[in-house]
């Protein structure tokens, strides 16, 4: 299910990757397709949060933008907030694992449980990318979290080497006084266009088809 964005949203998100120095004003509108309360420990500090994909209205655009939190050190601003696009937030290991996660499991985000689980998996990748285990490291789930969310997140984190399904772009709050959470957006990459065959190969194929047709006519006679 790569069509999680609306068509206009896809075009907007695709434009983020090419507008390295641009800014967006985002206004939070809710969580889709739902969210679940997640209880966790982050660098030894216990907390809870409504985990799930975010939806934003974008100033000057008629369609929403969907994004995920990649930042547990700041609170999300729920009023109109400026973001810089194309931010460089992570090293190669985190970027590769985020690519794998989105490629292999973004299509599986269909309800509140899977949305919360995907957000949990993102945090695990961001903060513990060298050891993807929800029970240890800088980010840990607590036992109060819904078991379904924990199981689904663990499934999402069983990553293979498959990559390249989505273009990811990172958004960083431009506020210096009270920064909002940094975000990641994703847009499905287009399927590769078929490679055109050289003219001699096409001619050879046409000749073989013609000979096959002639042979069939002779047998029928």
Question: How do the strands and helices of this protein lay out in sequence?
Answer:
Elements: H1 7-16, E1 23-31, E2 36-42, E3 45-51, E4 54-58, E5 65-69, E6 81-85, H2 92-105, H3 112-127, E7 139-141, H4 147-156, E8 166-173, E9 183-188, H5 199-220
Question: TL;DR of this structure?
Answer:
By secondary structure, the protein is α+β, with helices and mostly antiparallel strands.
Roughly how many Å apart are the termini? 53 Å
**pLDDT below 50 for ≥5 consecutive residues: which ranges?**
1-15, 200-205, 214-220
Q: Kindly provide the radius of gyration, computed on alpha-carbon positions and rounded to a whole number of angstroms.
A: 23 Å
Give the oligomeric state of the chains in this entry, treating copies of one chain as homo and distinct chains as hetero.
single chain
Largest sheet, spatial ordering of strands: 1-4-5-9-8-6
Largest sheet: 6 strands, antiparallel, barrel
Number of helices: 5
Question: What portion of residues belong to β-strands?
Answer: 15-25%
Measured as a percent range, the helix fraction is 25-40%
Q: If you had to describe this structure to a student in words, what would you say it looks like?
A:
The protein has 221 residues and is of the alpha+beta class. It contains five helices and nine strands. The chain is globular and about 40 Å long. The model is unreliable at 1-15, 200-205 and 214-220 (pLDDT under 50).
